[in-house]
Design brief:
- Helix 2 crosses helix 7.
- A six-stranded mixed sheet has the order 1-2-10-7-8-9, with helices on both faces. Strands 5-4-3-6 form a four-stranded parallel sheet.
- It starts with 17 loop residues before the first strand and ends in a 20-residue tail after the last strand.
- With 336 residues, the protein is α/β, with parallel strands linked by helices.
- The structure holds pyridoxal-5'-phosphate.
- Pyridoxal-5'-phosphate (PLP) binds next to helix 3, strand 7 and helix 8.
């Protein structure tokens, strides 16, 4: 596996730290919990999309693009990181936002990631929930071509085989860090959405025969569908790496029991997890992804799925910038 064969631009601060969470681990009384700080990738607040964008933006530039188009939910972290990457590379960036939650709150619609997109001067267009966003991007791309632009379309979450290379790279980085620390990793847990993060991790960790299982905690769709999406992308990513057929279907595992009412709507367990990480470790999670991922981790530790004596790595995928879009989910309106 030699990733330097693929075009790449440098956008992220790498390697991201791999650190123990002693107070959280002690509080939960189960395994030692470690955190891989992909919230610290450095670009515009960081997050997991930056690793994918290193490969996606390089491909855009290689194809002669002068503009990128992407899509996501209103509080998309992917949109924010794409807008920042485009700015840094001198490209235009058009963002299509899908109203997946129906929230009419001012903070949700204008604060957090939305405000940051505007700071990067990315034109924003809003679409109703359940719009065919791939079709909408194709239409936008055609409009831009008619204006003489050369657009490059990045799928939602940056999740295609090119973007997933960013997480193949993360898998190799994590293995090197664990080997250097002589840390035996028993499991990796993280929030899974558009599938690129998990697909890249599984491809990298399985094809290198690490023996490290990955569990994705779903944030939107049911388990069978999520696992299918991830596995399809694992296979396509392995094809790109000339490693077809090296990863078994059962290497892809998702648990979608922590979604709550739906995508972008924090459950009580999400809020509890955000408060627990903040108050024990000073770490900021987010209400859409990492808070649900951590809620799954906490519950599975309590149920004994991860045991004392094991080392579990929680991959922090970022997203805390969305907290400011969700002020009303917390009851913090009074001073003490
Ligand atoms: C996009 C995102 C995820 C999910 O990653 P996918 O590659 O889309 O599965 C997790 N956490 C945060 C904070 C994200 O922005």
């Amino acid at each position: 596996m030699h990733l330097a064969r693929f075009p790449r631009v440098s956008l992220a601060h790498l390697p991201t730290p791999l650190e123990p969470l002693p107070r959280l681990s002690e509080w939960l009384g189960g395994p030692m919990i470690w955190i891989k700080r992909d919230d610290c990738t450095g670009l515009a607040g960081g997050g997991n999309k930056t690793r994918k964008l290193e490969f996606l933006m390089a491909e855009a530039i290689e194809q002669g693009a002068d503009t990128v188009i992407t899509q996501g939910a209103t509080q998309s972290n992917h949109a924010r990181q794409t807008a920042a990457a485009a700015t840094r590379l001198g490209l235009g960036c058009h963002i299509l936002l899908e109203d997946r939650t129906g929230s009419i709150e001012e903070d949700y619609n204008y604060n957090g990631n939305v405000m940051l997109n505007q700071l990067f001067e990315a034109p924003l267009q809003k679409y109703p929930g359940a719009t065919d966003m791939n079709e909408a991007m194709a239409v936008r791309a055609e409009e831009l071509r008619e204006q003489g632009k050369r657009p490059y379309v990045i799928p939602g979450g940056g999740s295609n085989p090119t973007g997933a290379l960013g997480y193949v790279n993360c898998a190799l980085e994590l293995l090197t860090q664990a080997n250097d620390k002589h840390l035996r990793i028993d499991s990796v847990v993280h929030a899974t959405g558009s599938a690129g993060t998990q697909a890249g991790l599984v491809a990298g960790l399985s094809a290198s025969n690490s023996g490290i299982p990955v569990l994705g905690i779903g944030v939107r769709i049911p388990r069978a569908q999520q696992e299918e999406n991830v596995y399809r992308l694992v296979e396509a990513t392995l094809d790109k790496l000339n490693l077809s057929g090296t990863v078994a279907r059962d290497a892809v595992r998702a648990n979608c029991d922590y979604v709550g009412e739906g995508y972008g709507i924090p459950a009580q367990s999400t809020i509890d997890a955000i408060e627990m990480f903040a108050r024990l470790e000073g770490i900021l999670l987010d209400p859409v992804y990492s808070g649900k991922g951590a809620a799954g981790l906490i519950d599975l530790v309590r149920k004994g799925e991860f045991k004392s004596g094991q080392n579990v790595v929680f991959l922090h995928t970022g997203g805390a910038q969305a907290l400011f879009g969700y002020r009303s989910a917390f009851n913090f309106s009074q001073y003490d």
